[in-house]
């Protein structure tokens, strides 16, 4: 991938989100971490570090993984600093780093929960208590901050911690042959290896992955050592699929268990496979990706269909109203997809990345950046959500900061680092994976080129590229042709190119000797598409969803009235796409004439024999899914009856 500092985003759609993260989300989250928001659950996360550092008195407060919220905030701040200097933000971050460094113990250990609350029990409950998970997030934050500022202090902290981990864990007779219940350390160690070149970190990642799911089972060994004492209950020890520890990774063939843990694990696997060239590990990544993408992913890019365990269910079980689809899981899917792209240039990974990013990820945050969805349903009826416990996890409006605040900082760190997902480079090929306006500096064997991308994507599909180079440079510019697009066209310096033979794994491969002034235009027609679910998906049978470009659309009560389940979409419906400058900074809405099954004359009977409902024509207005629940509470529906 290109360094964050080498890609500058200046985009009509995404720049607003990045500025929102900079101006609202990160400051809001800083206040939340410091318990300065009266209507939010206390975090105490910064204070935990201050107490551990000996700067304040008090007791640990919060979840066992509370440290990770500080780490994710610091990571988001680092990405913002990489993109644009901000002396005030950098000073705050430096002060946080000073506190973290003082909280680190002499042997390198860093975890405020165990330092303050259970000082004698470190590494005794990896199944449940997130020690390595918190370590992973701190490592990610440190790598990001070092890359952004070149400041060594936080990197030194995590290297000292990682060196300590390399002594504690491993196959040796005096080492702990264990791994974390919530994967995260694996992908973090690979990032630390990349920035330091220390192979011990890569080997530790490899150990954690290879040890996972082996017999005798580590969860049971440490459970017995603790005398059966648990933190959250015995569920995590007994249900090994929950944390993908039910089998060695080379024998796993389905997406199972907690969705966030799954994609974090797979991200680490894919990174390790890219570095080592291990064909068996690569095959495992492909196998797990295929099952997730082809059988367990929502049209919005959400994953994890059940609230119990925030987990995958089974193939083709994708309920729309009881779905969990945690925002963090879609963020993790983006991580996994990017690592797979670096392994294999195939548009299916970039398509999934785009689907998740433009739908579930940004749906997870309100348009003002101050409230968040943890759960991302595709169908909502507010009265049922409030009365029926089966829907108790589904919220009809976004919420403020949680005590378990994993999703808000995850969204912030992804959006703040968005520029690293636009392009990938492999040898002398530059792959354009996302269509986001801005400039990218690319070094091809010492030849510096600048690629400027300009468009009004995702609303319009005309994307222009301009090349600037100090000298004529031979390379291939690979443009992704999304699966949602039919009849794409490409022109170079005004001459249309035949795409026959140019498409490789979904990318138009434009080989050339490129020079300053060369212009490339990609046209992706954005027709309104009627999407159908796989015949084995029971919950979408007889229904249709609307998609235009990367956006999935939905009906909201505020535009269409109540009882959206009575609406159906005729197969000959004509769609009108209109820009609404006053709605969410200028979205494209889709309107059409549909049918409503009227129940006005039904009467009091709950059931009737051979009843025929009257039908009436009605106007149906669809908005992009990401924008729902920003205008008050009401019904929402993605899948509509196909008439």
TrEMBL record:
Keywords, in A-Z order: Hydrolase
SUPFAM superfamilies, alphabetized: Six-hairpin glycosidases
Cross-referenced Gene3D superfamilies: 1.50.10.20
Residue intervals of the Non-reducing end beta-L-arabinofuranosidase-like GH127 middle domain: 429-526
InterPro entries: 6-hairpin_glycosidase_sf, Beta-AFase-like, Beta-AFase-like_GH127_C, Beta-AFase-like_GH127_cat, Beta-AFase-like_GH127_middle
Record's keyword annotation contains Protein biosynthesis: no
Domain called Non-reducing end beta-L-arabinofuranosidase-like GH127 C-terminal: residue spans: 528-640
Domain Non-reducing end beta-L-arabinofuranosidase-like GH127 catalytic: 6-419
A Pfam family of this chain: Glyco_hydro127C
Coiled-coil boundaries: none
A molecular function GO annotation: hydrolase activity
Signal peptide from the UniProt entry: none
Any one of the GO BP annotations: carbohydrate metabolic process
Name of the protein in question: Glycoside hydrolase family 127 protein
Higher taxonomy: Bacteria, Bacillati, Bacillota, Bacilli, Bacillales
């Amino acid at each position: 991938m290109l360094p964050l500092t080498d890609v500058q985003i200046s985009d009509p759609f995404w720049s607003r989100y990045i500025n929102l993260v900079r101006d609202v989300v990160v400051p809001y989250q800083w206040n939340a971490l410091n318990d300065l928001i009266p209507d939010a659950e206390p975090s105490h996360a910064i204070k935990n570090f201050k107490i551990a550092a000996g700067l304040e008195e008090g007791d640990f407060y919060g979840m066992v993984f509370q440290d990770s919220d500080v780490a994710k905030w610091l990571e988001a701040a680092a990405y913002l600093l990489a993109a644009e200097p901000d002396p005030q933000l950098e000073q705050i971050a430096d002060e946080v780093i000073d506190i973290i460094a003082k909280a680190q113990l002499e042997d390198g250990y860093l975890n405020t929960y165990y330092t303050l609350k259970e000082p004698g029990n470190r590494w005794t409950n990896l199944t449940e208590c997130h020690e390595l998970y918190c370590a992973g997030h701190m490592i990610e934050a440190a790598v990001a901050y070092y890359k952004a500022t070149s400041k060594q202090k936080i990197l030194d902290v995590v290297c000292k911690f990682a060196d300590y981990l390399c002594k504690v864990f491993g196959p040796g007779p005096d080492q702990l042959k264990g791994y974390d219940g919530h994967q995260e350390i694996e992908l973090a160690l690979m990032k630390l290896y990349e920035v330091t070149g220390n192979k011990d970190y890569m080997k530790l990642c490899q150990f954690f992955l290879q040890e996972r799911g082996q017999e005798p089972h580590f969860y049971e060994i440490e459970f017995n050592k603790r005398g059966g004492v648990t933190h959250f209950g015995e569920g995590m020890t007994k249900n090994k699929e929950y944390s993908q520890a039910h089998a060695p990774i080379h024998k796993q063939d389905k997406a199972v268990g907690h969705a966030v843990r799954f994609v974090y694990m797979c991200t680490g696997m894919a990174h390790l496979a890219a570095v080592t060239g291990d064909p068996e590990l690569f095959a495992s990544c492909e196998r797990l990706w295929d099952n997730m993408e082809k059988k367990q992913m929502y049209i919005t890019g959400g994953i994890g269909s059940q609230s119990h365990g925030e987990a995958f269910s089974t193939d083709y079980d994708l309920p729309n109203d009881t779905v969990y689809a945690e925002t963090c899981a879609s963020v993790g899917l983006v991580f996994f997809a990017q690592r797979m792209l670096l392994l294999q240039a195939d548009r299916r990974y970039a398509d999934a990345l785009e689907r998740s990013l433009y739908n579930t990820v940004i749906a997870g945050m309100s348009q003002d950046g101050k409230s968040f969805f943890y759960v991302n349903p595709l169908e909502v009826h507010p009265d049922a959500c409030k009365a029926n416990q089966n829907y108790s996890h589904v919220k009809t409006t976004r919420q403020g900061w949680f005590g378990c605040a994993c999703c808000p900082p995850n969204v912030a760190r992804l959006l703040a680092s968005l520029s690293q997902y636009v392009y990938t480079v492999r040898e002398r090929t530059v792959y354009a994976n996302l269509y986001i306006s801005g400039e990218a500096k690319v070094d091809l064997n010492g030849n510096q080129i600048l690629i400027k991308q300009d468009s009004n994507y995702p609303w319009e599909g005309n994307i222009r590229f301009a090349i600037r180079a100090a000298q004529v440079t031979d390379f291939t510019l690979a443009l992704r042709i999304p699966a949602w697009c039919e009849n794409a066209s490409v022109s170079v310096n005004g001459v249309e190119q035949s795409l026959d033979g140019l498409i490789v794994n979904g990318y138009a491969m434009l080989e050339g000797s490129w020079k300053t002034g060369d212009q490339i235009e990609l046209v992706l027609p954005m027709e309104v598409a009627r999407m159908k679910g796989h015949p084995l998906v029971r919950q979408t049978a007889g229904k249709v969803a609307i998609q235009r470009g990367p956006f999935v659309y939905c009906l909201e009560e505020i535009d269409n009235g109540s009882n959206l389940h009575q609406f159906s979409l005729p197969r000959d419906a004509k769609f009108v796409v209109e820009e609404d400058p006053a709605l969410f900074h200028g979205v494209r809405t889709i309107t059409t004439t549909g049918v409503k099954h009227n129940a006005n004359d039904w009467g009091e009977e709950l059931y009737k024999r051979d009843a025929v409902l009257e039908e009436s024509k009605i106007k149906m207005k669809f908005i992009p899914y990401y924008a729902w629940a920003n205008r008050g509470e009401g019904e929402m529906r993605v899948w509509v009856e196909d008439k």
